Amino acid sequence: MTKQRLILIADDDPHIREVVRFALENAGFATVQTADGRETIEQFLSVRPDLVILDIVMPEMDGTEVCRQIRAHSATPIIFLSSRDEEVDRIIGLELGGDDYVTKPFSPRELVARVKAVLRRGESAEAGTGPNSEITDAQKMLKYGDLALDLVRFEARWDDKPVALTITEFGILRTLLSYPGKVFTRDELMDSAYNYDNIVTDRTIDSHVRRVRKKFAAIGVDPIETVHGLGYRLGSCRKASD
Fold first, then answer.
1. Which CATH architecture has domain 6-123?
2. What is the model's pTM?
């Protein structure tokens, strides 16, 4: 029997929470609700949801700070809600570690589709392997050079050093690692990372790639190579001394 997914809905507007709750529960999800940032952190730590729908403007602690605190120790998917539709706000939300961004007013059906799409990214990570990568069935590891992805635990490692990624970041890196040497256009990475999103921009993908690079830069490496005018491909994934 498939485990029912639990979604944490964090918004200070009770009407929006009820609309989202109704749509998600009709789609087969379980839900828990919070009305401010501090309560959201407490509930997140208590119930460990599968995904968080997070309003940006909330009392006690805004959504951006909630995201920072969650990302300090968890890669649980986060979808931001905002009443503003400025691209800079969208990029800031994604730079903080959000997996998607929905503006108000929104279609409940579209929000449910986005929730399913983000969750599918994690589910599909195990299946998306290419012919040029080494896959160890016993451990479910996708490996190339010093880079390894655990497709069960959604963990990335470089020369056995762990690198914490969000589900979307993991999915992008998994796509690149599946076909070393292949140049992926931004559209191809969008198709891989976003099963349902008609408003994803090139800057959105660039933002996610930039976050992946920043995380690996902390250990002194960069697994992604920019191919100017085309897109991205996997780098050499070898230590400088190799």
1. 3-Layer(aba) Sandwich (3.40)
2. 0.62
